[in-house]
Amino acid sequence: MPDLPLATALAAGPVVLDGGLATQLEVQGHDLSSALWSARLLYDDPEAVVAAHAAFAAAGAQVATTASYQVSIEGLAAVGLDAAEARRLVVRSVQLAGRGAPESWVAGSVGPYGAALADGSEYTGGYAGELGVDRLRQWHRPRMQWLAEAGADVLACETVPAAAEAEALLEEADLLGLPVWLSLTTVVDDEGAVRTRRGEPAADVFAMAHGVEAVVAVGVNCTAPSAVGPSLAAAARAGKPLVAYPNSGEGWDAAARRWTGAGGVDPADVLAWVDAGARLIGGCCRVGPADVSALAAAIR
Question: By CB count within 10 A, which of 8, 116, 167, 208 is most buried?
């Protein structure tokens, strides 16, 4: 782990994030088609997770994001593991990130409720209205606490599709006191307005982070590269450094569990994101070490 706090580093200039951990694990030959996705390897093959983190670090990533995105008590219970095992795997995810990328900040991945459903719900946010802020806070609380106790440097509250879930995460983060970033997954509608996946104005959701001391950055991930620029403009409402780690531009077919279309993040776009205030920059789904290396070179 670097000696410098991440927030201090962001004030000095851009920091390079890693890419899609699951993408790299698939390249390494692992089948991630189960409902637990990359979290399965925390249990089955932890050395594979170490190797994936190491690949991104070697490519220039300065942050290692843990494989805890899809870890939940309910999800693990479905495969016969209890809450104690869930905690053990979350703690292990931090330890493995530190082993694979010892010179990097470790970001504890806090995926949305929809990720645990393994049905693409993080791209609709339809559950948020039914659950509400209080229940979402209760659901997120254990994993956030476990990541903090395990020594994560920052929590990556990521792929958030709805205002209620963003509010829940911000309230929990404020109590926890550990640095966090809040990253929505957004779309740009036909009128050019940036919205959450649930359809709410994204600028209003980003503005919730204003004044929350624990938040070190806000922005977007798992969003099409073409939507990053408008999304960062909306995120500026929070008055925080910005974070951008889009997917490759390909589309995810949740029913068929496969990627469709062509993709690619143009390193030239990175300079525009930096100009817009982005200080944490990397990639999400289908963005591998070679892509991160190109992004890092563009930033340098």
Answer: 116
Q: How far apart are CA 54 and CA 61, in angstroms?
A: 9
The domain containing residue 268 runs over which residues?
Answer: 6-299
- The tokens describing 50, both together, are 């170490």
- Give residue 264's pLDDT: 67
Pairing of strands 194-196, 215-221: unpaired
Buried b (16+ CB within 10 A) or exposed e, 116-127: bbbeebbbbbeb
For 101-142, the pLDDT digits (tens) are: 999 999 999 999 999 888 889 999 999 999 999 999 999 999
Structural domain total, the chain: 1
Show the tokens assigned to 168. Answer: 């829940």
Cα–Cα distance measured from residue 66 to residue 52, given in angstroms and rounded to the nearest whole number: 11
- Quote the mean pLDDT of the chain: 93
Give the distance, in angstroms, between the CA of residue 14 and the centroid of all CA atoms in the same chain: 17
For 37-50, the pLDDT digits (tens) are: 677 889 889 999 99
Q: What letter represents residue 291's amino acid?
A: D
What whole-number distance in Å separates Cα of residue 193 and Cα of residue 178?
Answer: 32
Question: Is 24 a domain residue?
Answer: yes
Tell me the β-bridge partners of 107.
Answer: 65, 154
Q: Per the domain annotation, does 50 fall within a domain?
A: yes
How many Å is the maximal CA-CA distance in the chain?
Answer: 48
1 domain residue, yes or no: no
User: For the domain that residue 114 is a member of, what is the CATH number?
Assistant: 3.20.20.330
- Minimal CA–CA distance to 239: which of 221, 254, 255, 218? 218
